[in-house]
Amino acid sequence: MTEPPGVVASVTGAEDPAHEAPWALQLVARIERQDPPTRAAVCRAAAVATVALLADERSTGDGPWAAEVARWEEGRIRKHVRRARGAAWERVQALPGVTVLVDGAEVRALVPGPTDRIPKDVARLQLDGSEPEPGDPGPWDALPPGTLVVAVCPEPFLPLGKAAAAAGHAAQLAWRRLDAPGQADWAAAGFPLVVEHPGPTRWARVVAAAPVVVRDGGFTVVAPGTTTAVSFWAPRQA
Protein backbone atom coordinates (compact mmCIF):
# COMPACT_ATOMS: atom_id res chain seq x y z
CA MET A 1 0.00 0.00 0.00
CA THR A 2 1.23 3.49 -0.78
CA GLU A 3 -0.19 6.84 0.31
CA PRO A 4 -3.91 7.27 0.99
CA PRO A 5 -5.97 8.13 -2.09
CA GLY A 6 -6.39 11.73 -3.14
CA VAL A 7 -2.90 13.15 -3.22
CA VAL A 8 -1.96 16.55 -4.58
CA ALA A 9 1.37 18.27 -5.03
CA SER A 10 3.53 18.90 -1.99
CA VAL A 11 3.86 22.44 -0.65
CA THR A 12 7.34 23.44 0.48
CA GLY A 13 7.23 27.24 0.54
CA ALA A 14 9.14 29.66 -1.64
CA GLU A 15 11.42 32.63 -1.10
CA ASP A 16 10.45 35.14 1.56
CA PRO A 17 8.92 38.36 0.21
CA ALA A 18 11.47 41.15 -0.12
CA HIS A 19 11.66 43.81 2.58
CA GLU A 20 9.63 41.76 5.06
CA ALA A 21 10.76 39.90 8.15
CA PRO A 22 10.50 36.10 7.77
CA TRP A 23 7.47 34.44 9.31
CA ALA A 24 7.62 31.43 11.62
CA LEU A 25 5.41 28.99 13.46
CA GLN A 26 6.23 28.97 17.16
CA LEU A 27 5.92 25.55 18.81
CA VAL A 28 6.14 25.60 22.59
CA ALA A 29 6.90 22.35 24.41
CA ARG A 30 6.08 21.97 28.08
CA ILE A 31 9.27 20.78 29.80
CA GLU A 32 8.80 20.74 33.56
CA ARG A 33 11.63 19.96 35.97
CA GLN A 34 9.70 17.03 37.39
CA ASP A 35 8.84 14.19 34.99
CA PRO A 36 9.81 15.87 31.72
CA PRO A 37 8.58 14.22 28.52
CA THR A 38 10.87 12.11 26.36
CA ARG A 39 12.48 13.33 23.15
CA ALA A 40 10.34 10.95 21.10
CA ALA A 41 7.14 12.21 22.74
CA VAL A 42 7.99 15.89 22.17
CA CYS A 43 8.79 15.24 18.51
CA ARG A 44 5.53 13.38 18.05
CA ALA A 45 3.52 16.07 19.85
CA ALA A 46 5.18 18.81 17.78
CA ALA A 47 4.20 17.02 14.57
CA VAL A 48 0.60 16.51 15.71
CA ALA A 49 0.33 20.11 16.95
CA THR A 50 1.49 21.40 13.58
CA VAL A 51 -1.16 19.54 11.60
CA ALA A 52 -3.81 20.22 14.25
CA LEU A 53 -3.25 23.93 13.76
CA LEU A 54 -3.46 23.59 9.97
CA ALA A 55 -6.64 21.51 10.24
CA ASP A 56 -8.35 23.85 12.70
CA GLU A 57 -11.37 25.55 11.11
CA ARG A 58 -9.96 28.89 12.25
CA SER A 59 -6.98 28.30 9.90
CA THR A 60 -9.07 27.57 6.81
CA GLY A 61 -11.48 29.40 4.52
CA ASP A 62 -12.54 32.70 6.08
CA GLY A 63 -11.31 31.68 9.53
CA PRO A 64 -9.59 34.29 11.71
CA TRP A 65 -6.18 32.58 11.38
CA ALA A 66 -6.36 31.74 7.68
CA ALA A 67 -4.51 34.81 6.41
CA GLU A 68 -1.61 34.30 8.83
CA VAL A 69 -1.28 30.61 7.98
CA ALA A 70 -1.37 31.35 4.25
CA ARG A 71 1.24 34.10 4.54
CA TRP A 72 3.54 31.79 6.51
CA GLU A 73 3.28 28.99 3.97
CA GLU A 74 3.93 31.38 1.07
CA GLY A 75 7.53 31.91 2.23
CA ARG A 76 10.20 29.67 3.66
CA ILE A 77 8.49 27.42 6.17
CA ARG A 78 10.18 28.17 9.48
CA LYS A 79 9.38 26.61 12.85
CA HIS A 80 10.87 27.62 16.18
CA VAL A 81 10.54 25.11 19.02
CA ARG A 82 10.73 26.66 22.46
CA ARG A 83 10.52 25.33 26.01
CA ALA A 84 8.27 26.50 28.81
CA ARG A 85 7.27 25.40 32.28
CA GLY A 86 5.13 26.59 35.16
CA ALA A 87 3.74 30.10 34.84
CA ALA A 88 5.47 30.64 31.49
CA TRP A 89 3.59 27.67 30.04
CA GLU A 90 0.29 29.00 31.40
CA ARG A 91 0.90 32.42 29.82
CA VAL A 92 1.44 30.83 26.43
CA GLN A 93 -2.01 29.21 26.64
CA ALA A 94 -3.59 32.68 26.38
CA LEU A 95 -2.08 33.22 22.91
CA PRO A 96 -3.95 32.10 19.77
CA GLY A 97 -3.12 28.50 18.87
CA VAL A 98 -3.80 24.86 19.68
CA THR A 99 -2.37 22.57 22.37
CA VAL A 100 -2.03 18.81 22.03
CA LEU A 101 -1.11 16.12 24.56
CA VAL A 102 0.68 13.10 23.08
CA ASP A 103 2.44 10.36 25.05
CA GLY A 104 2.71 12.66 28.06
CA ALA A 105 4.16 15.56 26.05
CA GLU A 106 2.28 18.84 25.66
CA VAL A 107 3.05 21.16 22.75
CA ARG A 108 1.23 24.33 21.78
CA ALA A 109 1.36 25.49 18.15
CA LEU A 110 0.82 29.23 17.95
CA VAL A 111 -0.64 31.08 14.99
CA PRO A 112 2.32 32.00 12.72
CA GLY A 113 3.63 35.54 12.65
CA PRO A 114 6.61 37.67 11.63
CA THR A 115 9.85 37.03 13.46
CA ASP A 116 10.24 40.70 14.31
CA ARG A 117 6.93 40.74 16.21
CA ILE A 118 7.11 37.60 18.36
CA PRO A 119 5.05 38.11 21.56
CA LYS A 120 7.24 38.85 24.57
CA ASP A 121 5.92 35.86 26.51
CA VAL A 122 7.19 33.67 23.65
CA ALA A 123 10.39 35.47 22.68
CA ARG A 124 11.81 35.07 26.19
CA LEU A 125 11.42 31.28 26.13
CA GLN A 126 14.44 29.04 25.58
CA LEU A 127 15.15 27.67 22.12
CA ASP A 128 17.52 25.03 23.46
CA GLY A 129 18.49 23.24 26.66
CA SER A 130 19.40 19.86 28.06
CA GLU A 131 18.40 16.80 26.08
CA PRO A 132 15.58 14.69 27.58
CA GLU A 133 15.55 10.91 27.70
CA PRO A 134 15.19 9.52 24.18
CA GLY A 135 12.07 7.41 24.68
CA ASP A 136 11.03 4.78 22.14
CA PRO A 137 12.99 5.45 18.93
CA GLY A 138 10.99 3.03 16.73
CA PRO A 139 10.57 1.54 14.22
CA TRP A 140 7.18 -0.02 14.90
CA ASP A 141 5.67 -3.09 13.29
CA ALA A 142 2.09 -3.56 12.09
CA LEU A 143 0.99 0.06 12.30
CA PRO A 144 -2.65 0.61 11.30
CA PRO A 145 -3.14 1.83 7.72
CA GLY A 146 -3.43 5.60 7.62
CA THR A 147 -0.72 6.14 10.25
CA LEU A 148 1.89 8.68 9.20
CA VAL A 149 5.44 7.60 9.95
CA VAL A 150 7.94 10.44 10.38
CA ALA A 151 11.63 9.55 10.54
CA VAL A 152 14.23 12.01 11.85
CA CYS A 153 17.81 11.83 10.62
CA PRO A 154 20.41 10.09 12.84
CA GLU A 155 23.39 12.03 11.45
CA PRO A 156 24.01 14.82 12.08
CA PHE A 157 22.39 14.53 15.50
CA LEU A 158 19.66 17.13 15.82
CA PRO A 159 19.04 18.80 19.17
CA LEU A 160 15.51 18.40 20.52
CA GLY A 161 14.18 21.67 19.10
CA LYS A 162 15.57 21.03 15.65
CA ALA A 163 14.35 17.43 15.63
CA ALA A 164 10.84 18.47 16.73
CA ALA A 165 10.74 21.20 14.08
CA ALA A 166 11.84 18.73 11.38
CA ALA A 167 9.16 16.25 12.49
CA GLY A 168 6.56 19.00 12.33
CA HIS A 169 7.71 19.96 8.85
CA ALA A 170 7.49 16.38 7.55
CA ALA A 171 3.97 16.06 8.97
CA GLN A 172 2.96 19.41 7.47
CA LEU A 173 4.11 18.43 3.98
CA ALA A 174 2.31 15.09 4.27
CA TRP A 175 -0.86 16.94 5.28
CA ARG A 176 -0.62 19.28 2.30
CA ARG A 177 -0.26 16.32 -0.08
CA LEU A 178 -3.71 15.06 0.91
CA ASP A 179 -6.86 16.28 -0.78
CA ALA A 180 -9.78 17.53 1.34
CA PRO A 181 -11.38 14.09 1.93
CA GLY A 182 -8.00 12.62 2.88
CA GLN A 183 -7.38 15.46 5.31
CA ALA A 184 -10.83 15.04 6.81
CA ASP A 185 -10.31 11.30 7.31
CA TRP A 186 -6.92 11.76 8.97
CA ALA A 187 -8.21 14.53 11.23
CA ALA A 188 -11.28 12.46 12.21
CA ALA A 189 -8.94 9.63 13.21
CA GLY A 190 -7.03 12.00 15.50
CA PHE A 191 -3.94 12.34 13.28
CA PRO A 192 -2.42 8.88 13.90
CA LEU A 193 1.30 9.52 13.66
CA VAL A 194 4.56 8.12 15.00
CA VAL A 195 8.06 9.60 14.96
CA GLU A 196 11.03 7.29 14.75
CA HIS A 197 14.73 7.93 15.13
CA PRO A 198 16.25 5.24 12.90
CA GLY A 199 19.85 4.13 12.72
CA PRO A 200 21.97 4.99 9.65
CA THR A 201 21.12 1.83 7.69
CA ARG A 202 17.36 2.15 8.04
CA TRP A 203 17.61 5.90 7.50
CA ALA A 204 19.20 5.37 4.10
CA ARG A 205 16.34 3.03 3.16
CA VAL A 206 13.52 5.32 4.25
CA VAL A 207 15.06 8.37 2.57
CA ALA A 208 15.24 6.45 -0.70
CA ALA A 209 11.60 5.35 -0.50
CA ALA A 210 9.74 8.16 1.28
CA PRO A 211 7.43 10.42 -0.76
CA VAL A 212 8.01 13.38 1.58
CA VAL A 213 11.57 14.55 2.18
CA VAL A 214 12.49 17.61 4.25
CA ARG A 215 15.66 19.36 3.14
CA ASP A 216 16.75 22.00 5.60
CA GLY A 217 17.16 25.63 4.62
CA GLY A 218 20.37 25.82 6.64
CA PHE A 219 19.30 28.69 8.89
CA THR A 220 20.45 26.87 12.06
CA VAL A 221 22.52 23.87 13.16
CA VAL A 222 22.88 22.01 9.84
CA ALA A 223 24.15 22.83 6.36
CA PRO A 224 21.67 23.93 3.67
CA GLY A 225 20.12 21.00 1.85
CA THR A 226 20.60 18.51 4.71
CA THR A 227 17.82 15.92 4.78
CA THR A 228 16.49 16.19 8.32
CA ALA A 229 13.24 14.19 8.15
CA VAL A 230 11.03 12.14 5.87
CA SER A 231 7.49 10.84 6.12
CA PHE A 232 5.43 8.04 4.60
CA TRP A 233 2.14 6.28 5.31
CA ALA A 234 1.87 2.88 6.99
CA PRO A 235 2.04 0.06 6.13
CA ARG A 236 4.76 1.01 3.65
CA GLN A 237 8.02 -0.56 4.86
CA ALA A 238 11.43 0.61 3.70
Overall pLDDT confidence: 89
Strand content: 15-25%
Alpha-carbon distance between the termini?
A: 12 Å
- The count of helical stretches stands at 7
Structural class: alpha+beta
Indicate the radius of gyration in whole angstroms: 17 Å
Helix content: 25-40%
Large-scale geometry: globular
Q: What's the number of extended β-strand segments?
A: 9
Q: SSE order in H/E notation?
A: EHHEHEEEHEHHEHEE
Summarize the main sheet: 5 strands, mixed
Segments where pLDDT lies below 50 for 5+ residues? 1-11
Describe how the helices and strands are arranged.
Blueprint: E1 23-30, H1 39-55, H2 66-74, E2 78-84, H3 86-92, E3 97-102, E4 105-110, E5 113-114, H4 120-123, E6 148-152, H5 160-177, H6 180-188, E7 193-196, H7 200-209, E8 212-215, E9 227-233
Parallel strand pairs: 1-2, 6-7
Antiparallel strand pairs: 1-4, 1-5, 3-4, 6-9, 8-9
Describe the overall structure.
The structure is a single chain. Helix content is 31%, strand content 21%. The chain has 7 helices and 9 strands, in the order βααβαβββαβααβαββ. Strands 1, 2, 3, 4 and 5 form a 5-stranded mixed sheet that branches. It has a 4-stranded mixed sheet with strand order 7-6-9-8, sandwiched between helices. The protein is globular. The model is unreliable at 1-11 (pLDDT under 50).
Main features:
single chain; about 240 residues; alpha+beta; five-stranded mixed sheet; four-stranded mixed sheet; 7 helices; 9 strands; about 30% helix; disordered N terminus
